[in-house]
Amino acid sequence: DDLFYYEESRDLFRIIVNATNIQKDFEWLNEHAKGKDVKIQNLTSKRSRLAFQGPKSDDLLQPLVNIDLTELKRFYFKHCKLNDIPIFLARTGYTGENGFEISFEKENSEKIWKILLKTGASPAGLGARDSLRLEAAYSLYGHEISDTITPIEAGLNWLVKPKKNIEYIGKTTLVKQKSEGTERIIVGLNLLDKGIIRQNYKIFKNGNEIGYVTSGGYSPTFKKTIGLGLVKTQFNEAGTEIEIEIRGKFLKGIIVSTPFYRNV
């Protein structure tokens, strides 16, 4: 899953998971916690979360909270208050922009929503968020990572660490993939012909299928079609020309470096 794991203390951890995987992750954690002195609570129905993202997010949020946001580093968090409402504030996000994710008790959802709107921030839906995370080349569960795509194949090598005397599920395979490489890898895609690429479209090289699109769409920032794809490793070099099958037609594309855009 693509999730954030926060250590609040040596014996208290907060996990914020992909919304589509709530039950699956909860069951997985409980299964692997059997026989251990661990208590797991699913607080999903009691909590809400908003992402407050963009270049001006610090300036707009600072007057509302009782901490100095300049001291909150990326991937760190603070318990604080937003207009006297207790919140869990993390400098995280899935947009490729600076920003925050704000968690709070569900009954405060409408109140916090209205407070944030008064700052001049504009609401944005999941489609807008997904176009931004694609431009930033962030992997999304069910697309670039899944039960059949490893973090190494997804290009997330920095998340896999061969720590001594610490065992974790999949360590042997992942460490081996990190040192020896994989047969397939996630790459960036540009479509040269006119069209839109979507998930699961097949990718070809000289008439031979070499992979498939994991994410694709129109980039508002660059005003062109971009995407991510899982291809055979020997074709991952930027500049490699490819074809993508779209509705029975083979359109010209090219492998490109990623991220397409990132401001953090």
TrEMBL record:
InterPro entries documented for this protein: GcvT, GcvT/YgfZ/DmdA, GcvT/YgfZ_C, GcvT_C, GCVT_N, TrmE/GcvT-like
Cellular component, GO annotation: cytosol; glycine cleavage complex
Residues covered by the Aminomethyltransferase C-terminal domain: 185-261
EC main group: transferase
UniProt keyword annotation of tRNA-binding present: no
GO molecular function, one term: aminomethyltransferase activity
Enzyme Commission number(s) from the entry: 2.1.2.10
Example GO BP: glycine catabolic process
Leader sequence residues: none
Gene3D superfamilies in the record: Aminomethyltransferase beta-barrel domains, Aminomethyltransferase fragment, Probable tRNA modification gtpase trme, domain 1
The keyword Transferase is assigned to this record: yes
Annotated keywords: Aminotransferase, Transferase
Catalysed reactions, semicolon-separated: N(6)-[(R)-S(8)-aminomethyldihydrolipoyl]-L-lysyl-[protein] + (6S)-5,6,7,8-tetrahydrofolate = N(6)-[(R)-dihydrolipoyl]-L-lysyl-[protein] + (6R)-5,10-methylene-5,6,7,8-tetrahydrofolate + NH4(+)
Domain GCVT N-terminal: 1-164
Family statement drawn from the similarity comment of this UniProt entry: Belongs to the GcvT family.
Annotated protein name in UniProt: aminomethyltransferase
Protein species of origin: marine sediment metagenome
Highest classification ranks of the organism: unclassified sequences, metagenomes, ecological metagenomes
